[in-house]
Design goal:
Blueprint lengths: L1 H12 L1 H13 L8 H11 L5 E4 L6 E6 L2 E11 L26 H16 L6 E9 L7 H7 L12 E8 L8 E3 L2 E4 L1 E10 L3 E2 L9 H18 L7 E10 L5 E2 L2 E10 L2 H21 L3 E7 L5 E3 L1 H15 L4 E3 L11 H6 L2 E7 L24 H18 L2
Parallel strand pairs: 3-4, 3-5, 5-16, 6-15
Antiparallel strand pairs: 1-2, 2-4, 6-16, 7-14, 8-12, 8-13, 9-11, 10-12
Helix pairs in contact: 1-8, 1-10, 2-4, 4-10, 6-7, 8-10
Length: 401
C-alpha cells in the first residue's frame, strides 16, 4: 500500500512535464499509420530512461522495452497516438496547429500518460523482476495499427511473449471526475461496416410498372433489419444495426436503377459477431428477391470485440482503489458500443482495457462534450492517474512472477 501511494505521489510530482508533453502532442495531430512528428516527440521524451527502443517498419510506431534488475516475465502497456479529422473548437492555448485535425479522442493524453508510466517504472527498475514493453501505437482510429504492430513482433519484443497487457482510454464526458471505470468480459463492441446495393431497373416516374423501383425495396430492407435484430438474435446478446445513409436517384420523376445503403453493425460477443453477416445478407437478398430484384452485400469486418480478462480486471479495480481511493473505481454495467483495436492484443494475451475520467472539474458528465467532439477538452490531471495506474499494473503483475 505504501509503495502504491508513493507511485501516485511521484506521478503527481511530474504533472507539469507530462502536461507540457501532452500540449506539444496536441498542437501537431497526425492521422493514420504514419505520424512522424508524433513519433519524434515520443522518442525525445523517452531519452535517458535506459530503454531498448525500436521503431516500426510499416508504420511509425515506437516500442520501448524496460528491463528490470532481475529476470522475470514481460508485460505490455499501450498508448495510441493518432488523431482525428476534426476541426478543433476548444479555445485551448495549445490548440491544434494542423488545420482540420485534432486530438479529439485524447490520444495525446494516452501518449503522455504512457511516458509518465515509463518514467515511474524506470525509477523503480531495481524493484522489477522482468520486463515492461511500452507500445506506442499509430492508427487506432480505423487503421488497425495494433494488428500491424503484432505482426511486427510487439508481443515478443522483450524476447518472450508478454504474459499480460494493459491499456487505458480517457473519457471527456460520461464519467464523473476522478474515477476509473471498467468491466469484466466484453468492454467494447465489434463495429463492422456494410454497403448494400439494391439492383432494379430504371424508368419514368409516371410508369413504375415498366421499371423495377429499388427505392421502396431499400426502405423495406431498413425496416426488416430492425426486425431482424430483435427476432434473430438474443435480446440479452444484442446486435445494433444503424443505416446511416440511403442514396438513390437524381430527380423526382426518374426511377433509379439502384439504391445504396451504408450500414454499421455492432455486436458484443463472438457468437453474434460470427452470425451477423449471414443473417444480414439473408434479409437483404430475400427482400430484394421478393420484389424481383437482387441485392449485393459488401460486409467489411472492423475490430473484434474487446474482452477483459476477469482476473486482470479485478487487479485493475483493486489497484485503482488502492491508488486513488475506494470511490475511484466504477463498475461499468454494460459495454460501450464503440470499437477499439486493443482488442487484437487482448485476443492474444490476457489483460484489461479501462477508462480514466478526464472530464474537467465542475463539468457535468451528462452534458460535457465527449470524445470526438470539436469541443472535447481533457483535464491534464488525468495524466497522473493514467501513469500511476499503468505503472502499478506492470509492477503488480510482475511481482507475481
Amino acid at each position: 500500500m505504501d509503495e502504491l501511494t508513493g507511485l501516485y505521489d511521484d506521478a503527481r510530482a511530474m504533472l507539469p512535464e507530462l502536461a507540457e508533453l501532452r500540449h506539444a502532442l496536441h498542437r501537431v495531430p497526425e492521422l493514420g499509420l504514419h505520424l512522424p512528428r508524433t513519433q519524434a516527440l515520443v522518442l525525445e521524451a523517452l531519452e535517458g530512461l535506459g530503454l531498448e527502443v525500436t521503431t516500426g517498419e510499416s508504420l511509425t510506431s515506437v516500442v520501448a522495452v524496460l528491463r528490470g534488475a532481475r529476470p522475470g516475465p514481460a508485460v505490455l502497456l499501450r498508448g495510441d497516438m493518432d488523431a482525428l479529422p476534426v476541426t478543433e473548437d476548444t479555445g485551448e492555448p495549445f490548440t491544434s496547429e494542423h488545420e482540420g485535425l485534432m486530438h479529439a479522442c485524447g490520444h495525446d493524453m494516452h501518449v503522455a500518460g504512457l511516458v509518465g508510466a515509463a518514467r515511474l517504472l524506470a525509477a523503480r527498475r531495481d524493484e522489477i523482476a522482468g520486463s515492461v514493453v511500452l507500445m506506442f501505437q499509430p492508427g487506432e482510429e480505423g487503421d488497425g495499427g495494433a494488428e500491424y504492430m503484432i505482426r511486427e513482433g510487439v508481443l515478443d519484443a522483450a524476447g518472450e511473449r508478454v504474459v499480460a497487457a494493459y491499456g487505458v482510454h480517457v473519457s471527456g464526458g460520461l464519467l464523473p471526475h476522478g474515477v476509473v471505470a471498467g468491466r469484466a468480459g466484453t468492454a467494447m463492441a465489434a463495429p463492422d461496416d456494410v454497403t448494400v446495393t439494391v439492383h432494379g431497373v430504371g424508368g419514368h416516374g409516371s410508369a413504375p410498372h415498366r421499371a423495377a423501383d429499388p427505392v421502396p425495396v431499400a426502405a423495406e430492407i431498413v425496416l426488416a433489419l430492425q426486425a431482424m435484430v430483435t427476432r434473430r438474435f438474443d435480446v440479452f446478446d444484442p446486435v445494433v444495426v444503424t443505416v446511416g445513409s440511403i442514396h438513390a436517384g437524381t430527380a423526382n420523376n426518374v426511377i433509379p436503377a439502384s439504391a445504396t445503403l451504408e450500414i454499421t453493425v455492432r455486436t458484443f460477443s463472438q457468437d453474434t459477431w460470427t452470425a451477423a453477416p449471414d443473417r444480414l445478407r439473408e434479409v437483404c437478398e430475400h427482400v430484394a428477391a421478393a420484389h424481383g430484384m437482387t441485392a449485393t452485400v459488401d460486409y467489411r469486418r472492423g475490430y473484434p470485440v474487446t474482452v477483459n480478462d476477469p482476473h486482470e480486471l479485478d487487479r485493475t479495480a483493486r489497484l485503482a482503489r488502492s491508488l486513488f481511493g475506494d470511490d475511484a473505481w466504477v463498475e461499468m454495467p454494460s459495454p460501450l458500443a464503440g470499437g477499439e483495436d486493443f482488442s487484437y492484443v487482448l485476443q492474444e494475451v490476457p489483460g484489461a482495457f479501462v477508462f480514466v475520467s478526464a472530464i474537467l472539474p465542475g463539468e457535468d458528465p451528462r452534458t460535457a462534450p465527449y470524445n470526438h467532439s470539436p469541443q472535447a477538452r481533457f483535464d491534464d490531471e488525468a495524466l497522473t492517474r493514467s501513469a500511476a495506474l499503468l505503472a502499478g499494473l506492470a509492477l503488480d503483475r510482475l511481482a507475481e512472477g
